[in-house]
Each structure stands twice: as structure tokens, then as C-alpha cells.
Amino acid sequence: MSWQTLRDAIHASIVEASGLPVGQVVWKFQDVGQPPMDYIAVAVGSSGSPGQDGVSSHTDLTRAAGQEVELRVEGLREITIGLEVFTVATAGEDDALDRAELIRSKLRLPAARDLLGAAGISPLEIGQVGYAPSIVAAGFRGRATLDIRCLAPARAASEFTGYIKTAAGTLSTSGGGIAGTNERDFNLGDV
């Protein structure tokens, strides 16, 4: 799973939960101006590991010699999705507080939650909505915050190795009408 796949799932889920068009759900820390209308700024905080990563192996004998076994790192990351909801309205049905509460509720329903689940993201805790209106130019702008703590799959990382790299040893045979044991050294080198 790539981080881009995770970001795409997060974005789609917030678009679904908020009811805003795609262009009004933006990523924070981008080199673009803020939209002039209602919008949501999304950020993914740093990730931590809630446990030890493991390595699994997957064998495909149809691959080229020396590349038959894929070793994959598998594990989970704990991430925080931070939302800042901005609205032109500061009070009323479509203010930032109302939209953040809507997102908070809709993330519990299948339409938004399944978009996260398809990428392996599981919300653990949908936090409290904070309301902090800010002054923009001469007027006010509604602003609410919401943090969502999630588990997500670790960034995909793998490498390939061979099923058998070298074969060497001593072959001992007996029987078949030949008295004693017949021994022969062999070395197949890289196979």
C-alpha cells in the first residue's frame, strides 16, 4: 500500500462525509491559496508503530531465477488525520461547527467509512470537534477542528531473493548391485 493510495482514500472519505465538492477538500501545507468559499484543509500527522513489523515471504516459481521469493514488510501505523473546517457562515446550520459534526457522524456510516476501509484504514477514535472562529480580512470566518486517530497499513516495501541460490554437497549412493557406498562431490554454483 502506498501513501498516495492512503491519501486518496482519506480525501475521498472526507469529501463523502462533508458533502463538499472535491475541489473544496484540500491538503494543508500546499503552495496554493485558500479557497474563497467553504472548504476543509486535511493533514495527515506523523505515524507511529503500535507494534513490531513483520516480514512475510511469497513464492512465485514462474519468476526469473534468483527472484522467486518476495520478502514483504507488513505492519501497521497509527496516524492522525487532522481536519480544519472553514466556512463563510459563523453561526447557523452551515457553519464550521455544524459541518465538522456532520463529518464526525458520517465517518461512522458505511459510505464514508468503507472508502477508508478499502485502503486498509481503520478509524480508532473520532475526536471532539473544536470550534475556533478566526478573523479573515475585515470579517469573521467559521473554523472548526477535528482529529481522527486511525490504524493504517505500513508503507509497502519488499525485495526479491532466490528460492535456491547455490547447491553443493556430497552425494552418497548404495545398493543397486554395487558393493559399498559410492560418494561423489557436486557443486552446481548459482542456479
What does this structure look like?
The chain is an alpha+beta fold. The chain is 18% helix and 45% strand. The protein contains three helices and twelve strands, in the order αβββββααβββββββ. Strands 1, 2, 5, 6, 7, 8 and 9 form a seven-stranded mixed beta sheet that branches. A three-stranded antiparallel beta sheet has the order 3-4-10, with no helix packed on it. Helix 1 packs across helix 2 and helix 1 (3-18) packs antiparallel against helix 3 (110-117). The longest helix is centred in the N-terminal third of the chain and has 16 residues, at 3-18. The chain starts with a helix and ends with a strand. The mean pLDDT is 83.
